[in-house]
Amino acid sequence: MPGGQPLLTVSRLNKWYGPLHVLRDVSLDVAAHERVAVCGPSGSGKSTLLRCLNGLEPHQSGRVIIDGTELAGAASALRLARREVGMVFQSFNLFPHMTALENCTLAPIWVRRMAPAEAEALALDYLARVHLSAHSHKYPSQLSGGEQQRVAIARALCMTPKIMLFDEPTSALDPEMIREVLDIIVDLADSGMTMICVTHEMSFARRVADRIVFMDRGEIVEQGTPDQMFDSPRSDRLRTFLRAGR
Amino acid sequence: MPIEGPRGSPADDLADALAATPAVAGTADRSPAENHFRRNVFLTWAALFALLAGLCYGLHLDFAYVAQKLPFLLGLKLAPDGFIQGAALTIFVTACSMFFALLVALLTALGRLSRNPVAFAVATFYASLFRGTPLLVQVLIIYLALPQIGIVLGALSSGLIALSLNYGAYLAETIRSGVMAVPAGQREAARALALPRWVIAWKVIAPQALRLIIPPAGALFVSMLKDSSLVSLLGLWELNFLAQSYARASYHYMEMLITAALIYWALSIGFELVQFRLERRFGKGVATWGRH
Q1: Can you give the pTM of this predicted structure?
Q2: Nearest 5 degrees, angle CA A120-CA A125-CA A129?
Q3: Domains along the sequence of chain A with CATH
């Protein structure tokens, strides 16, 4: 990390949906290799924050800087930043008309300008890492939810991003499938990937994250190490949230 | 079932189309119940067809006259002026109108999806005007009324313009609804992968939208094939025009009109087979609803 500069900087971010103020002066720095879990009640703005980090949602004021590129109006800057940011969605959002392999090779071929054979080799490598080598020629409709989410993770990794964003990656899964997806994310964390994960899985957050960010009503209420957040929460709002989660 | 490679033969397509099961797996692994269903569908169709044929035969029609005029109706012989006629002209008019309607519809659908108020207004105005007035009136305005203000168009161009503009308006709505029906998450996932806009449109949205657009668009084109008979009013020697003139000349209305109807029917079935193939091609990866 050159000069100790954070990989991701969010400063005084504000966002409104009409009259609704959904992000209030949110500031956040994420260093390379850092693993951040974002928790909070529904409607607290955590998914919106995540979606602002790769420009899926525009913000009205404040700055988002990813690896030196500021997400601003220009579409080219946005695309440049997005190349370095992988995103995994709650509802997978795999392309249903493409096989698992085709889902994974699309962006390397059209964005990284890789030769198809090279992209396939890369994709097969990542599909193997999510334990889906045997399913590479299946369509999403032929895969379980957990398998689809693992393909979605492989698809994002094929762009060799510098940061991975996870938006409640296990919320749409049956309980028996949550584990297989979380295991993959833990592997990824162990490999040193910088990641920000919005999650309701508190035990997972505690196990994997270096830092937990607690949001409520559009602002960051409190952040700290998992031990500090779980064992000695400072704010009433976090205490109430943790008690409700027990 | 005849087997001709993984894509199946036309006969197999017909059976598939009849039984309305775009089978993903092909012909190999059908359940006995499925085979039973398909056989009975086929037999019932054959029986109804035989009944219809018997009925026509029972009318004691002048089949020699039909045989004599059939090459003309089908368009196997050129018209006295050297131009194509009969079913060939019908197909020509339909194919040209399909092409132009598609162009007009794509532009109109883009306008309908646009945030530009002028583009949106132009698109909605055009669609409303041409959907809200009868095709027959449009044909006549273009051919008979426009010359009054000095715009004289030939019969063929008038027919093509009317059919293209009318069907373009309907097709635009079909295309727009197909594009809108692709879930927002697909566009988001594609944007998150930093894909350029045209790749998102061409590789992600279009194939999924086409799957939804093809069935209603196919129905529109079949209906256009039949509505092309309206241009007979302009004196174009297409299928319906020829059938009527032969019928009038020899008072063989039953023979000529039934023959024309059967030819239209056969052409429609051909269109539906093409549509069915396209549906199967763009249905990749989509679980289909079968009977259970």
Answers
A1: 0.81
A2: 140
A3: 1-84+199-246 (3.40.50.300)
Distance between CA atoms of residues A150 and A169, nearest Å: 10
Of B186, B194, B286, the CB nearest to A82: B194
Distance from CA of B136 to the nearest CA of A (A): 41
d(CA B123, CA B110): 8
3-state secondary structure of A23: strand
At the top level of CATH, which class does the domain B61-282 belong to? mainly alpha
Question: pLDDT by residue (tens digit) across A58-103?
Answer: 899 999 999 888 887 677 888 888 999 999 999 999 999 999 999 9
pLDDT tens for each residue of A155-179? 999 999 999 999 999 998 988 899 9
B194 near A CB under 8 A: yes
Closest residue by Cα to residue A60 from A10, A13, A8, A9: A13
* Nearest residue in A to B189, CA atom: A93
Tell me B238's DSSP state.
B
The verdict on A111 touching B (C-beta cutoff 8 Å) is yes
> What is the value of ipTM here, to two decimals?
0.92
